[in-house]
Amino acid sequence: MVATATDTAPAQQFTRPRTALILVGAAILLTLLQYSGLLPAVLHRLPEAWIPPFAAWLDAGFNFIKDDLGLLALTRFLTEGLEWVLDVTANLLFGQRRWPFLGPIPWTAIAAVAAVIGYYLGGWRMALLGGGVFAWTALIGQWKIAMQTASVLVVAAPLAFVIGLTLGIAAWRYAWLDRALKPVLSVLQTLPFFTYLLPAVIFFKVGPTAGAVATTIYAIPPMILMTTLGLQKVSPEVVESGHMSGCSRWQLLRHVYLPSARTEILVGVNQVIMLSLAMVVLTAFIGMPGLGAKLLAMMGSFKLGRSFEIGVTIVLLAVMLDQMSKAWALKQPKHFERGTPWWKRHILLLTGIGAFVFFCILGQFVEVATDIGRKQNFSMGSEIDQLMKDFLALNWVNAITDGIRYFLNVQVLIPFRNFLLSIPTPALILLISAFALWLGGRRQAIIAALFFGMIALSGWWDRSVITLYSVISAVALAMLFGLPLGIAAARSDKWSRRVLLACDTAQTFPSFVYLIPAIMLFGITDVAVIFSILIFAMVPLTRYTIEGLRTVPAEMLEAADMSGATRRQKLWKVQLPLALPTMAIGFNQAIMFAFFMVIIAAFIGTQDLGQELQRTLAGTDMGKNFVLGICVSLMALTFDLTILKWATDQKRALGLGE
């Protein structure tokens, strides 16, 4: 029996690669028949008559829900309450003339409170970060637009937290709800942001209200997932002790489960805050005022200096919120001896209140403590603009960018795009399925064929292929730059920290800031699109390459050294094979980032799904908007499921755990 099992193992091992090779051969045959003119037209592209009118069906369904079932009336009723809350935050933060007529709060008061909170969470460094970010925002002349963004953020993030926490608890309690929510959450996390914006506009009006709704929905999924994960990981011994102490079901949840899952829940809070900030900037596309709207306006006039300053402000806000929320997740409750006076136990709270009151009073007498005017701020936007224009006007810069643009456009990108478009629809589906089979297995291959088959039936196949071409091109180029950078940085702690810091900074920049240098360097071309996606996609590739290589077990490296391996042999034979599962996660995230960024690149004027999605915002084509969004989601999910399955299998094979 042992011999038989051993003999059959190689045959089983090569089943997947051989089957994948057969699928690739079939795809090549279909493509050659197409090139020779022998392939029937119906096998090249589905005839329009065969395309189901999904958009019309969805429009009919949406209209039925919106009008006949009265959802529009309900959402407009809810809008009034949400508008009232947003008016309150707007009045307090930037002085909109609505109830409670108390605003605006002086920038010095908010900066002081942020510094006190920072000190409570992480000492003087965090205090300087908290107070310094708000001081920068005021001194650079961006206080009002930052507070317009913050007035929506302080409403959307808590809403997303409450809804996500509630649904997470419900999904943990009821297995059927957990099973139902998981595929929905997977789709929501891969839908392009334009798909969130149009329904928000239709049901909740243009402006801050729609922006708050879209931001809330966008930020909910990670809160649900982290809450469910945290509650599922609670130790049975801890629960048993709760039962023995006579806790009711509600008391168990409140005093046992939620405190035990505190770390995971607060990680969810961190992700909610970061996603909310990212989305509230992007809601500028539907009339949301604030940093995003100003950034879009500056981009439209190619004012790189001012755009850079606004981008830096958004980065600083993101870093501050990220670091503070992470510090909150790690901070343990502080206990005092019995009998400690109340004021000693809450000294920082009293300090914060005192600082807030002091600066509010000071603001009544010293104008600069409340508002910094145009002539008083330290903005250098115009100077940076002129500096960049002078740099781009240099002959050698033009020669380099022209050479890169010509080579990539004429020799690489356009031929690659045309080649993908020339492949018959079933042939490309076979190629994607072969990739999924080889990497992930039979289940992933079936999912890939099903998902891309649905895209073919959507009527947007060519636009989807162009979107896929942009993603593949950008990720391939990102690998050429990101992987060597990560490998080089992983050789020392100092360079690892520096490069990871650069990755953190690049990731927190608002995504459409990258369009400005791309356009200025390469014009309105495919190269500009690929360049803007490339920068965004490089971040996870570099990050996870460093983390994968730095976490290789020390004993494995020692064994390689003892066997006399050179540095190159140790890298190729030991470090990279063991780091590949972690690097695969970075590759997967790079693809997800690329799908996200390719939609942003529609601002340049692409010919892909992003361009069509952007056009839907000008009308009420919810059906078309949803179909386009699902096409992007299905492509992203195909790669996501396949690569993560491969990473899991590799970890198991290497004994690294799930």
Automatic annotation (TrEMBL):
SUPFAM superfamilies: MetI-like. This is Glycine betaine/proline transport system permease protein. It comes from Roseovarius nanhaiticus. Pfam families: BPD_transp_1. It comes from the Bacteria. It is a multi-pass membrane protein. It is found in: Cell membrane. One of its GO terms (molecular function) is amine transmembrane transporter activity. InterPro entries: MetI-like, MetI-like_sf. Keywords: Cell membrane, Membrane, Transmembrane, Transmembrane helix, Transport.
